[in-house]
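Data availability excerpt. The first of two example chains:
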Amino acid sequence: MSPIAKTVVYWVLALTFALNNIPASANDDDLPTQAAPYVPQSPLTGEIRIVGSEAMQQLAVLWKRGFQAFHPDVEFRIECQTTNEPVSRLAPSQKVVRLSGHDLLNRDESQSDSETGIETRACLVGQEILAAVVHPDNPTVSLKWAPSVQPKILSKGDEMATTWGQLGASPKSEPIVISLYGPDPSQPKYAFVEELLTSGSGEKPAMISTRSSQEMLAAVGEDLGGIAFHSVARGRPADVKVLPLTIDGTTLDPFRPEAIEAGYPLVRPVSVVAAVDEFGDFDRLTDQFIRYVLSRDGQLDLIKDGYFPLSQEQLHRQEIKLGWEVLK
C-alpha cells in the first residue's frame, strides 16, 4: 500500500473511531468534561515511557489504550513504581512522561537540569481528591475547619491538635490521641499531606509512614485515634469511616461530585512532566500524547479512574502555558 493510501486509511479509521465513541444523545453540556475531542494530526510511531507512582498505574494504562486507539503503531512502556528521579535524568534520548502529584511549581520538575542541560515542562492534567478516613468507632462526625481562625485542618489555633477532643469529638473518659498515618516519604503525596497539615507556627505533623494504601487503611482501621488521607480515586474504603469536611458551617462529602465546585480543599494536582527542546517545545510524539490527555477522550479516561477533570478555565490556562492556540 502506498504512503498516500495508508494516510487515507488512517484518517478514515481515526474519524470513525471518534464518531462511534460519542453517544448520539450526548450534548456538550451533559458530558463531565468540556474539553474538545482529540483529533490526530497524522500517523505516529515510536515509544513513550511513562513513569510515576504505583497509584497512577491504572491511569497510565487507560491513557495508553486510548491513545493507541488513534495511533496503534505507538508503543508504551509503563513503569509506575514510585521513582522520584527527575525526568531529565531518566533517559534523555527517550520519550519519557512522568505522571506526578507534585505541585506544578515544584522546582525539581520545571528547571533545567544542571548535569544534563535538559529542560522539562510540567502541565496540569487533572486533580485528585483526598478524603479523611478514621477508625469506624471514632466519635468525630466531621472535621470542622474555619480558615479565618484555624490555619490548618488538624490544628487548634496555631498549634497541632493532639487529641480528637480538641477537634470537637464527643468527650470520652479517656482522651483519644490523634495518630496520623501517611505514605512513605518517597511518595509525592507525603510532601502534599505534610504541607497540608503543617501548623501556623511551622510545626510539621508527626506522620507514621506506611508502604501502601492498603497498609495505611489497615493501620487506621486498628487505631481508634488514627487518621489518614485516602484518594477518592481508589474508591470508598470499606473498613474505615470517611469524615466529611465542614468549612465555615458547610459540610462537604469528598465522594460527592459537587465537592470541588463547593470549595472542598483537599485536592492534589495531577500533572505530566516531559523534556522540552531548546525552544521549550515537546517532541512531536510527546506533544500529541499530552494533547490527547488534555482532550475530551483523555479527560474521560481520567474520570474513569476516579480523578477529577480540569475545568474549562484550567484547560485554557494549560493551552496558554504550552503555547497551543487550540487544544486538539
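And the second chain:
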Amino acid sequence: MARIVSVVGVTMAVVAVMAPRSALSQTDHAADGHSHASAPVSCTTLASPPWTGLPDADRLQFASLQQTMAALRTPEAARAAGFQPALGNIPGMGVHYVNSARGRDPVNIDEPDHLMFSSVDGREQLVGAAFVFVDVPDTDEPIPFQSELATWHDHPQFADEGRTLHMLHVWFIPSSNGPFAGLNFWLPYHSAGIATPSSCWMADEADANRIQNVSFALVPPSARRGPEALQRYEARQAERSELLAALDAAALAVDHDAWVAAADVFLADLTQVERRTVEVLLSRLNMAQMSSRERGGNSN
C-alpha cells in the first residue's frame, strides 16, 4: 500500500479546507451532527493526559510516543529533524510540521508523519502529532490504537482517483474532545491567553456549540488577509477586553452559568462578517475531520 504523501499535497489539502466557500462545491453539513472531531468524551478520564479512560495498551503507546517526541518539543528541533511547517495556524489544530520522508514508510506509532505546534503560555509548543497515508477509502490499514475513539478521517480529493488521504490526530495536551479529536477547541483559548471552559460542559450540545463558536471567534485572521485585517482584529479584541476578562474569570471559577452568560454577550458582540467567518470555519473544519463514510461519500 502506498503512503507517499508530499508536503505539497498536504499543504493543498489544508489550503482547500481553509478556502473561501466559493472555491469548494460540496455542501457544508458537518454542523448537522457529530463527527469524531466534535463528539463528547468523558470529562474525567478522557479530557487530558494521561488519558486514564483509554485501554492500558493505548496509554502505554501514548507514553512511549511522548517520550520519543520529547526531543522534538520545539519548532527548531522539529525542523532539524526534517519536519517543515506546511501552512500557518489552522484553528483547532495549530501548525502542521510535515516530514515527507516518513510519509513513504508504513505507519509507525513511534514515528508520526506530522507534528502539531501551537501557542501555549506565550510560546510555540508541541501539542500533538498525526499519522498520514494514502489508500482506498475502505482502508485495511490498522489503527495503531485499540480505543474506538481512534478513527481515520480522510480527504478523497487529495489522492489519485479511487484513493484518499487518511489521517489520525493524537494530542499531548488537554483536548476538548479527547486524545484523538480531529479538532482541539482549547487551542485558540490558549493562544488568546484565556482559560479554557470545563471539559464537562462539552457533554451538553448547546454548551459545546458555544464553546466551539467562542473558540473560533478568538482566532486571528490569516496572514493571507493582510496586515490591515490583523490590525482590525487586534483593535476589536482590545475593545472587548472586559468581555474576554469575563470569559476568563468564569472559566477559572468553573462557573457554568457565568461562563454561558459571558459567552453569549461575547458572541452577540461579533460583527456579521465575524459570525459568518466562524460559521464557515466550523462547518468546513468539522467536515474535514470526518471519514468518507461519515460524509456519505462527499469529498473534502
